[in-house]
Request: fold
Amino acid sequence: MQPTQNQPIHEMQGKTMAESHVRLSQFMSPQHANAQGNVHGGEIMKLADEAGALAAMRHARSHVVTVAMDSMTFMEPIYVGNVVTLEAEVTYVGRTSMETRVVVIAENPLTGVTTTTNIAYLVYVALDSQGRPQPVPPLIAANDEERAHMQEARERQEYRKLQRAREKQRRQALDVGAPGSPHV
Ligand SMILES: CC(C)(COP(=O)(O)OP(=O)(O)OC[C@H]1O[C@@H](n2cnc3c(N)ncnc32)[C@H](O)[C@@H]1OP(=O)(O)O)[C@@H](O)C(=O)NCCC(=O)NCCS
Reply:
């Protein structure tokens, strides 16, 4: 069953993590390079966002927007001439939000050597046709490994909610007295 606007979550059929799985591959050419000649970190972040968004769209079957990106650590450089493959899937869902896990793998196509260079977590919110957050189907973990992924994701999302509340307070404090601020 496809989600429809304001449909109660309990009426939606659950979907497995595998159903949201996305694999994206791209050849890294000189246009992706930084000043050192390696691939620019921002290119990888953009590709991770695209892969994560596609996984979230597959789960929700709706438009989505990015609300958070964390744990985007760069463990290994990626070189021009490598093929980058991103594997993404939904690891946790709330009411309208979805966390996706994106694994980035670089391959030297001349040698076949592959390296897992990044694991990123990105959160998306499903939107209805008016651009408002819309409920998403429940997520089904099919085995113990997926259940463990889901539990870790739930903990990360709880932490993000705390961070979000703190950031809101910091932004409000910065806005006090600023031109155009509602506090002035
Ligand atoms: C997405 C958006 C419409 C949500 O509106 P909102 O008023 O914040 O709605 P809510 O507070 O109900 O949040 C919606 C969900 O997102 C989650 N969420 C929002 N910000 C989050 C964050 N920083 N980290 C994790 N989850 C977040 C909430 O926990 C909630 O999840 P749930 O429904 O599963 O419980 C609004 O935040 C927005 O437009 N953000 C900008 C998105 C964007 O432009 N992204 C591209 C940036 S370049």
